[in-house]
Design a protein that fits this description.
single chain, alpha+beta, elongated, binds adenosine monophosphate
Length: 418
């Protein structure tokens, strides 16, 4: 038997109802905050991700699904959505009418990571991006939206971690102070961090290797190196979060390695996921639109890990599962023909109906109705056809009414929707 690919998974009925509910709640929130949906291809030219995510990141170095198409062009299954959304924003000149645009996207991403709990090779993200606003207040709005979404989805034990990455003016000073410090602890760093120390020292700060974390305890903080604009900017973020009563912690190890990231960066963490504690991450990427060939337009956004969100939501798929409104237990050929016609007509008016097609005994049909959780059962056999009425039983209250076979669909509708 052919099995699915390692690190991939199926989302089956019984689980998918929760995914649908998460999607519904997220869409509602985006709609209320004026975000428009954008749908983009799951494949792009490899170059796009190399340039936007950066050559010396784990994603580009070892995790992308990249292959030549039949003509030899290198294409990649998207490992994240921001790059493609920025590409679309530039390609369709979406900034021409109004540079301020707000988008959201729901869909699969692909990274060839080591599969483990909470880490898949095809996983799903809920993504939001805001273009054209320099004010850090929109970063606050994004954090508020995240916290609200998690709250509505009953996610326990959530905390918002925030940091600032400074700007191209103040970051170089911090980088060299950090590099000096890293030189002094080089023998304690993992081999990846020794390499990062020279090429991308900020990334050493978010290394998860315990020895590196320990070595970095006395690392300088960017907060001590901010220029006055960045300091004011970060103060505004904190004040505004306070005003909106969004709790947060300042996490100086929260960094993004690339030069086009600037100022606010944030992550939503949860105590309920073990090692994979981040359920959403985001921040400002003021330099990316220009980097990818567009005008100098600032941008900010976030990505939520859908799979992890589904895992930690306090909501249960069974709360959203649609059960049949009615099960028609039909006995004999004539009854089945009639039951089939009714069930089709009921389905067309939104009354979900199931029936049995193999003329099983009444007992076994009743069992199935019970298993499916049908709200009502209508029993139809030769006796009922002869008498011209059939009993409709409310499975919860066990009350039974007798309905005329003539005009049955209308009668059922009247009974179910009084
Ligand atoms: P990132 O794009 O790396 O900032 O990730 C954003 C969010 O996507 C993370 O906080 C995770 O919740 C989720 N995520 C990233 N990689 C994976 C993965 N391999 N499997 C499941 N979720 C993931």
């Amino acid at each position: 038997m052919i099995q699915l690919i390692r690190g991939f998974k199926d989302i089956l009925p019984g689980e998918v109802e929760l995914w649908q509910e998460i999607e519904r709640v997220a869409r509602q929130l985006f709609d209320d905050f004026g975000f428009k949906e954008i749908r983009i291809p799951i494949m792009e030219r490899t170059e796009l991700f190399k340039r936007s995510i950066g050559e010396d990141t784990d994603i580009v170095e070892k995790e992308m699904y990249t292959f030549p198409d039949r003509k030899g062009d290198l294409i990649t299954l998207r490992p994240e959505a921001t790059a493609s959304i920025v590409r679309a924003y530039i390609q369709h000149k979406l900034f021409a009418k109004d540079p301020v645009q707000k988008f959201f996207l729901l869909g699969p991403m692909f990274r060839r990571e080591r599969p483990q709990k909470g880490r898949y090779r095809q996983f799903y993200q809920i993504d939001a991006e805001i273009f054209g606003v320099t004010s850090p207040l929109v970063d606050v709005q994004l954090i508020l939206m995240l916290v609200t979404l998690f709250d509505r989805l009953q996610v326990p034990d959530i905390s918002a971690h925030i940091n600032t990455l400074g700007c191209p003016k103040c970051r170089p000073g911090f980088k060299s102070a950090l590099q000096d410090m890293l030189m002094s602890v080089s023998d304690k760093l993992c081999s990846d961090c020794v390499r990062r120390r020279d090429r991308n020292p900020l990334r050493v700060l978010d290394c998860k290797v315990p020895a590196c974390r320990e070595a970095l305890e006395g690392a300088p903080s960017l907060l001590d190196h901010l220029c006055s604009e960045c300091r004011d900017d970060f103060a505004e973020v904190r004040n505004s979060l306070d005003k909106l009563k969004v709790p947060y912690v300042i996490d100086k190890h929260l960094v993004r390695g690339l030069d086009y990231y600037a100022r606010t960066t944030f992550e939503i963490q949860t105590g309920s996921l073990g090692a994979q504690s981040a359920v959403a991450g985001g921040g400002r990427y003021d330099g990316l639109v220009k980097e990818l060939g567009g005008p100098q337009i600032p941008a900010t956004g976030f990505a939520i890990g859908f799979d992890r969100l589904a895992e930690i939501s306090g909501l249960k798929p069974s709360d959203f599962e649609r059960k049949p409104d009615i099960f028609v237990a039909a006995l004999g050929e004539k009854s089945q023909t009639l039951a089939f016609e009714w069930s089709c007509r009921l389905g067309l008016i939104g009354i979900s109906t199931e029936m049995d097609f193999s003329d099983k005994s009444l007992k076994s049909q009743m069992k199935r109705a019970d298993r499916l959780g049908a709200a009502y059962v209508l029993i139809l056999g030769d006796k009922e056809l002869e008498e011209g009425t059939a009993p409709l039983r409310n499975m919860a209250t066990k009350e039974q009414v007798s309905l005329p076979i003539d005009g049955m669909v209308d009668k059922i509708e009247e009974t179910l929707r009084p």
